[in-house]
Amino acid sequence: MRPMNKNRDDALNNLVAEYENISKQGLAVFLDEKAYQQLIDYYESEGLPEKALEVAGRAIQHYSFSVDFYLRQANLLIETHREHEALNVLEHAANFSPGELEIELLRAEAFIYLDQTDTALAILDACKAGAEGHDLSDILLVEAVLFEQEEAYERMFISLRAALDLWPENEEALEKMWLATELSKQYEESVRFHETLLEDYPYAYLAWYNLAHAHACLGNYDEAIEAYEFAFSINDQFEFAYRDCAELCFELQQYGKALRLYLEMQEQFDPEGETLLRIGQCFQHLGKYEEAKEYFVKAIHIDPMDDEAHFCLGQCWAEKGNWKSAIRCYQKAIHIEDGREEYYLGMAEALEQTGDLTGAAFYFKASLEIAPEEKDLWLRYITFLLDTGQFEEALKCSEEAITFDLGAELIYSQAACLLRLGRRQEALYWLGEALLEDYEAHGVLFSLVPALTVDPDVANLIAAR
């Protein structure tokens, strides 16, 4: 942290501590206008709108002719869905500064959220008369809010684009532009618009961020990653760009790059359980299980109820063959979240390794109860039943799985079960049906019963197709 920033942060922390101490004692608070503004900013940034409103109320008591504090109070009231109160405050503000644009825009916004859009539109139309530049840009921004409320998302996009044409550095409009793009699905137009904007304003980090999102939604992943990188290179405090870039790399299975980004985030920002979990998962995918375990433990320390971290830790223990530790982790994950089929599958496989076949069967069935549409779960359970000599049960399972119409692989599994039961004629019939439906999937037959690779009847039937 730079010394100047540290001094500023220390001063703000001291101001907050002083204010809260005086308030707690029930004493009167007398601060200058700048201090009140800093306190309102602080409580807003901390997600404490009620505290911010309290400060704004005290500020108005001491600076009753300051329109700025009325505006802050009205804005906070709108954010906390108290539009009628906001309108009363704005009426007081208008007495001191009649016709001020910001008052009118907040009035329009309050009426928008009260579903009185005709009234809001009339206010905005009146504001537009003679407005230009930054003022007109702000008017169009509120107009976009109105169209969003009416679910007219293409018009919302058009209004924001017009607002940014007038004032390309309007951060509020840039922040809202991504939502408008997402809601209106105007991804290609968003790419064109932001690329044009960036030709003249190459350091507009929010424009790079919006461009990255649009590219990602169009499947232009390399361009999206590059745009995200520009966004956080320009503003190294822009956590969303780091996070979204890292998430995209993770989804693309670029685990090395995702890991570098998550580690940078950990250094740059306060560590969060979600980031630590992702770092662990990157190490896990890279086969570095000891490092992965370290980060999963850190994530659990921050949030002991993080079921995914417990599960991933269990997976690491399983990779090392430490089945007892894996089982403990899976138990914790299932206790916290009992609706994830992969947790039950992990438990089933671990119990199978320890020889607890009854327990394994219970958890295989539990996983299928949660996600009967998952073909791989059926195949894994059928494999377990065949491997443990439960051929009749395996056939019943494959027949039930076929009713879900999940693909030819399950017909192959039925043929495999019939072959294991010695019902060769039936098995070859179903094998023929499976080959007709999806010849390319016949490898599943050999993964279920490897000995079938040397079965002449099976080989001839496959060759004949």
Number of strands: 0
* Quaternary: single chain
Q: What low-confidence regions span 5 or more consecutive residues with pLDDT below 50?
A: 1-7
Order of helices and strands: HHHHHHHHHHHHHHHHHHHHHHHHHHH
Corresponding CATH architecture of the domain at 14-129: Alpha Horseshoe
Distance between the termini: 70 Å
Q: Nearest-angstrom radius of gyration?
A: 31 Å
Description:
This protein has 465 residues and is mostly helical. Among the domains are: 14-129, Alpha Horseshoe (Serine Threonine Protein Phosphatase 5, Tetratricopeptide repeat), CATH 1.25.40; 384-465, no CATH class. It has 27 helices and no strands. The longest helix has 22 residues, at 3-24. The protein is elongated, with a radius of gyration of 31 Å.
Structure described in brief:
The chain has 465 residues and is an all-alpha fold.
Strand and helix layout:
Blueprint: H1 3-24, H2 33-45, H3 49-62, H4 67-79, H5 83-96, H6 101-113, H7 117-128, H8 133-149, H9 153-166, H10 171-184, H11 187-200, H12 205-217, H13 221-234, H14 239-251, H15 255-268, H16 273-285, H17 289-302, H18 307-319, H19 323-336, H20 341-354, H21 357-370, H22 375-387, H23 391-402, H24 409-420, H25 424-437, H26 443-448, H27 456-464
Helix pairs in contact: 2-3, 3-4, 4-5, 4-6, 5-6, 6-7, 6-8, 7-8, 8-9, 9-10, 10-12, 11-12, 12-13, 13-14, 14-15, 15-16, 16-17, 16-18, 17-18, 18-19, 19-20, 20-21, 21-22, 22-23, 22-24, 23-24, 24-25, 25-27
